[in-house]
Design goal:
With 453 residues, the protein is of the alpha+beta class. The protein folds into two domains: 19-75, no CATH class; 85-110 and 125-351 and 358-450, Neuraminidase, CATH 2.120.10. Helices cover 15% and strands 35% of the residues. It is built from nine helices and 25 strands. The strands form five sheets. Strands 7, 8, 9, 10, 11, 12, 13, 14, 15 and 16 form a ten-stranded mixed sheet that branches. The protein has a four-stranded antiparallel sheet with strand order 3-4-5-6, with no helix packed on it. Strand 8 (209-217) and strand 9 form a beta hairpin. The protein is globular, with a radius of gyration of 25 Å. The protein starts with 11 loop residues before the first helix and ends with a helix.
Length: 453
């Protein structure tokens, strides 16, 4: 046996160079939590590995968010801090049943691994249900919010005993993942047909906490909204709800269907209410459902603004901050409508004209194509014929699909009104352009960044 090498003793200069933590860990983390900016927290994490481990702990990150909300954080005001979101890019269906969705980063965006976290191994029940395994199609990204991404794939195994035993009413599998932390959760079967997906109550700090809503407007019962919510804390779906759709006078709406140029609706979440663009017998409307509180047993219809462009212009829902704010100085988020028609963009918001008054639509902006700063390689008329695809609430960015399939998807920043484009052609994303933007909040992104050092 070879003799063990003697342990090398550190020289006096080396011992002096290694930093010593003189304060207890709890006191150090309390000081870090009072940093006025997220960047300050990251600088503190670079001081030593013990401090970094404490900062990356989920309990500290939640305490940090609470401190920022109470103090106003980077803004230095009395209003709670809305932690900023970063638009990193988009995920799109790759077409390969064995592959993950492909990722396309935004220009000059923050770096992110090009694929989502690896799937967990198939469970034993996949082969035990009916004696046959699932034959899944490719993943389809269907929703995202605050660092979480919802993926959907369909089982192609048509054996009746397998479908009933493994998937229940619908042969699909839903999973929720956090690409910045590597988490992935495969959800159990659900009862409501998942025509639309919305993430609710999202806390992306590992382990991620969320609620996922699936919604259905059935052809057989077009006057009822069917919904079901999965809770990560309970680990299961709640009971399916049948919510009658009513109009302003309390009458029942005869017919309602999701209005979407793409294959899947693009709902927006504002507080405890989910909003969809829809089509009724009276024309285009907004379908709303309040998922928390006593109003969860019914859905209602909101009319579009009277002065907006009639016909069938491109439009999508958005959530934008109020420019004025309330009496306390905080900025209230408002339901907004973005309309695109013949090279002109209109931005409408549903706001109150005074205390206690009902919300009414107001035209905020009317923007001509010529007034939008654009790259030099954009030709005149680039906005004409474009399609509105997604609104990214966290970053205030609007995704546009150009009318020409050889042109890259466009990104319009609604705050600066500057446009840029992705380094991918429309036909490269997917023959059925199904993609989903991916945003992270800074706290979740901090987890990803600090794992590198």
């Amino acid at each position: 046996m070879e003799p063990r090498p003697e342990k090398r003793t550190r020289t006096e200069p080396e011992a002096e160079a290694e930093p010593k933590q003189l304060l207890p860990d709890d006191l150090v983390l309390e000081i870090v939590a009072r940093c006025p900016t997220i960047a300050g927290v990251i600088r503190c994490a670079a001081a030593s590995k013990p401090v970094r481990r404490g900062i990356l702990h989920a309990s500290f990150l939640r305490r940090l968010r609470g401190f920022l909300n109470r103090s106003g954080g980077e803004h230095g005001g009395q209003a709670p801090l809305s932690v900023r979101k970063l638009l990193l890019g988009l995920y799109h269906q790759s077409g390969d049943p064995r592959g993950q969705p492909a990722f396309v980063p935004v220009p000059d965006g923050a770096s992110l691994p090009p694929s989502v976290a690896a799937l967990p191994p198939a469970s034993a029940r996949d082969g035990a249900a009916g004696g046959s395994a699932c034959e899944f199609g490719p993943y389809l990204p269907v929703a995202s919010r605050r660092s979480l991404l919802v993926l959907r794939r369909r089982c192609r195994n048509r054996a009746t005993d397998h479908l009933v035993g493994r998937h229940g009413l619908h042969p699909v599998e839903l999973s929720v993942c956090n690409p910045s932390t590597g988490e992935r959760r495969v959800l159990p079967p659900h009862d409501v047909l998942d025509m639309s997906h919305s993430l609710l109550d999202v806390d992306p700090i590992a382990p991620s906490s969320f609620k996922l809503l699936v919604a259905e407007l059935s052809d057989g019962d077009p006057s009822t909204l069917y919904v079901q919510i999965f809770s990560s804390e309970e680990g299961d779906w709640g009971p399916p709800l049948a919510c009658p759709i009513t109009i302003s006078r309390g009458d029942r709406e005869d017919s309602c269907e999701f209005a979407c140029a793409a294959r899947r609706p693009r709902p927006v979440v504002l507080g405890d209410t989910v909003h969809w663009l829809c089509t009724t017998d009276s024309g285009d409307r907004i379908l709303t459902w309040r998922w928390r509180g006593g109003a969860a047993q019914k859905a209602s219809i909101v009319k579009l603004p009277r002065g907006y462009k009639f016909g069938r212009p491109e439009k999508c829902l958005a959530v934008l901050p109020s420019p004025a704010g309330d009496a306390a100085g905080s900025q209230a988020a408002l339901l907004s409508l973005i309309v695109l028609d013949r090279g002109e963009i209109e931005v409408w918001a549903r706001e109150k004209s005074g205390a206690g008054s009902a919300r009414k639509w107001k035209l905020w902006h009317r923007v001509q194509e010529a007034s939008i700063p654009r790259p030099t390689d954009f030709c005149n008329g680039w906005l004409s014929g474009a399609e509105l695809s997604w609104f990214c609430k966290g970053s205030g960015t609007l995704f546009l699909q150009a009318g020409d399939e050889t042109v890259s998807p466009l990104l319009l920043d609604l705050e600066s009104m500057e446009v840029s484009k992705l380094e991918a052609r429309k036909w490269e994303l997917n023959p059925e352009p199904e993609f989903c933007p991916y945003e992270v909040d800074l706290l979740s992104y901090m987890l990803f960044v600090m794992k590198r050092f």
